[in-house]
Amino acid sequence: MVKRLLALFNKEISGLHEAAYLLATFAFLSQILALIRDRLLAYQFGASHLLDIYYAAFRIPDFIFISIASMVSISVLVPFLTERFVNNKENVKSFIDQTFSVFFFAIFAVAAIVFVFDPYIVPKVLPGFANDPLLPDLILATRILLLSPILLGISNFFASITQLYNRFFLYATSPIVYNIGIIFGIIVLYPIFGLPGLMFGVTIGAFLHLFIQVPFIVSQKMFPKILWKVNFGSIKRVVLLSLPRTLTLSSNQIATFFLIALASLMSTGSIAIFNYSFNLQSVPLAIVGVSYSSAAFPMLSRLLSGGQKGKFLEHMIIATRHIIFWSIPIMVMFIVLRAQIVRVILGSGQFSWSDTRLTAATLAIFVLSLVPQSLLLLFVRAYYSDGRTWKPMVINLISSTLIVVFGFIMIHFFNTFLTFKYFIESLFRVADVPGTAVLMLALAYSIGVTINMIIHWVAFEHDFKGFTKATITPFWEVFSASVIGGFLTYNFLDFFGGIFNLDTFVGIFLQGFVAGIIGITVIVAILKLLKNEELKDVWKTLHHRIWKAGAVAPDVDVERL
Q1: CB 300 within 8 A of CB 285
Q2: DSSP 386
Q3: C-beta of residue 435 within 8 angstroms of C-beta of residue 361
Q4: Contact of 166 with 155, CB cutoff 8 Å
Q5: How many Å apart are CA 189 and CA 184, to the nearest integer?
Q6: HSE toward the beta carbon, residue 411, CA cutoff 13 A
Q7: Torsional class of 126: left (φ above 0), alpha (ψ -120 to 50), beta (otherwise)
Q8: Quick check: 224 and 161 in contact, CB under 8 A?
């Protein structure tokens, strides 16, 4: 049994869909644990001030992670590793040691500096807590979490190596153990240590995220050594190219950083509502967008390294069509079933009915950008595969700036023009709920991300002619089927509302589940009538049985160890 499990973790996975579905399966398991985590937090704290403190404590460590650790992320390192793996395998280990040493010293130094000056930094970047009685607790929580970007950064560095060998099982399992650590902190450590216990749980999860990849790295003799003398000339290209890649990957998260700062100035619970809804919309994004873009990235890099631009475009079209195929129905179902989703996942303990309604409304606005978010992950990785780093960087920086600007503008409009405020509150049925200004933060994010995706799409079509023509038909097929399925789901909600007891967890779950199943069945039936190609591909892939997929066949021009 143990041998089979080890063989499974060390197995290479063939094909885009097999790898994507494998990653999606593990992403689903990870997100289930993430939802359990959020339910435990909602039960224990609701949308309270203490939970605002908890989420706010992540802001500075997360900023360090996205600004420093993303310089050695998978999207940055895989093309460099692939190039050396193909052309000169002997230099791979030396390159890993050199790059790891620079990264380790850089992130450790930054974390140490922030640790010392944290009492002065926190009130500046989170102005809503400047005069808060719990500011010392926020500072302590932030300091504990400074271990997290170091551990997760090293883990991401290791993930680049495991991705190089197509060990998707290892890559996909890391988020699962990460959430297990956080849940351990909520259940076991919080009752003993209070708020610091929650932070220790996050740190334990980050350590598990790292440790699970160590055995394979060691077995391949790729475990990096810390070098005290580094030849910066050997990694000069990485540093020069990683900067625009880092800015690209982190731009939207930096924009989110500013949105959280704005939320700190709003009513109590606004940060918690923002994070609850953002985490919920991240579930389908992780399952679809992250899975497909991560599965496609190594192959895209290999194809361009081998000069196969035609196959590169073909691979991109397939990945795009399947992201659209999965994302649009999920988006529609999340919008229609938003109240049921939030009530089932978070509606317990201290999480009130007002919290539920406001989180559901915020979730609906966030999920409007699900398709753009998913496609953005793919577009950025496609440009990285082609070595074009500045174009996505400029586009992302512009759109991220727009997100922040829209945040200020939307809040101003919302508080100044009562007609606009009443329209938004009536549209999402939260007119009698306090703290609705947080909806503007989600709206600003969705608008900015959508503009970002449109610009990327236009740019990619300009660089690779024929991309739009090959993807537009399946888009309208899936969109039309999803709208019809969503309409029927919405109407069946009222019907089943009269059958099931909506005052119970089971009743709410069955109302949403049965209505959703009917809607999904209708969507599948319509796509089958339209002879949708993606539906056929899904059936073939599932029939092939992912877990019995054979080893990756080597590319013609690529040597493998």
Answers
A1: no
A2: T
A3: no
A4: no
A5: 7
A6: 16
A7: beta
A8: no
Q: Is 518 helix (H, G, I), strand (E, B) or coil?
A: helix
CB 544 within 8 A of CB 18: yes
Note the residue count of the chain. 561
Q: Map 310-377 to HEC letters.
A: HHHHHHHHHHHHHHHHHHHHHHHHHHHCHHHHHHHHHCCCCCCHHHHHHHHHHHHHHHCCHHHHHHHH
**Model confidence over 69-110: pLDDT tens digits?**
766 665 566 666 666 665 555 577 777 777 788 888 888 999
Tokens of 161: 């190596």
**DSSP secondary structure string, 168-208?**
HHHHHHHHHHHHHHHHHIIIIIHHHHSHHHHHHHHHHHHHH
pLDDT band at 66 (very low <50, low <70, confident <90, very high): confident
Please name the residue that has the structure tokens 């069945």.
521
Question: Which pair of tokens denotes residue 381?
Answer: 């990785």
Q: In angstroms, rounded to a whole number, what is the distance separating the alpha carbons of residues 214 and 203?
A: 17
In the block, tokens 């001030």 appear at 49
The encoded tokens of residue 241 equal 């190219």
Which two structure tokens, joined as six digits, stand for 396?
């992302």
Expressed in percent and rounded to 5, the helix, strand and coil fractions of the chain are: 80, 0, 20
Q: Are 292 and 380 in contact (CB under 8 A)?
A: no
Q: Which helix (H) or strand (E) holds 134?
A: none
Domain ranges for the chain:
49-243
Cα 266 to the center of its chain, rounded Å: 25
3-state secondary structure string across 200-254: HHHHHHHHHHHHCCHHHHHHCCCCCCCCCCCCHHHHHHHHHHHHHHHHHHHHHHH
CB neighbours (10 Å) of residue 160? Answer: 22
In sign, the C-alpha dihedral spanning 259, 264, 265, 266 is: positive
User: In this predicted structure, what is the pLDDT of residue 13?
Assistant: 46
| H-run or E-run covering 492 | helix 467-497
Tokens 């947080």 sit on residue: 438
Report whether pLDDT(450) > 90.
yes
Cα distance between residue 220 and residue 361, in whole Å: 48
Q: Give the integer Cα–Cα distance in Å for 285 and 209.
A: 20
When pLDDT is averaged across residues 516-542 and rounded to a whole number, the result is 86
CA separation for the pair 441, 259 (Å, rounded): 6
Q: Six-digit token pair at 360?
A: 């559901």
